[in-house]
Amino acid sequence: METIYRLEQKEGAARTGEIAANLGVVLGTVTNTIEHLEGEGLVSHVPYRGVKLTSRGLKGALNVIRRHRLSERLLTDMIRVGWADVHTPACRLEHGLTDEIIKPLEKALKHPKTCPHGNPIPTKCGGIIEEKSEPLTALNEREEGTVVKITEEKADLLRYLDTMGLVPGASINVIEKAPFDGPITLRVGEAKRVLSRSMASIIQVKRTT
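RE: above sequence
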């Protein structure tokens, strides 16, 4: 359900092939699970159009995401695990967080609003407050911005962005956008960086000029 939510936010619906690729499972497993979730009234599936969460499914997905992102905060803020490496262990840890644990955990973490990657943590009531942002690819040459969040959480990708200084809060300046979907050249702090369009598309920024 968490994967469906992410894909639905990104593309409007989650296709079974994309769900399988994201979870690293075979298509048949996804198909059977979707049928089960549909029977429970958690998703709706229209062939060739994709899968969407129902209102009940959305509530459940946001609850899982809340636990997951708080788990990531616990790992980074208290145990000092690197932000690039928290996604997978947080997937395991989230299942052990009961409502009784979450309340004191949030207090200990000083009620964080986002996960380490900048994505908002849903509230207990299922609300989610997104800071206004847009893909880095939307910025034009000579425009500046601040990195708000990274929408993909694969460890190798996050490690790469970390080495480039492209983390939430980083200031960027677009130097050049090559034509025909070519790479984007940025200034990140004092360094010059070059990103592919696909890489830049997962970085959400807030314009500052």
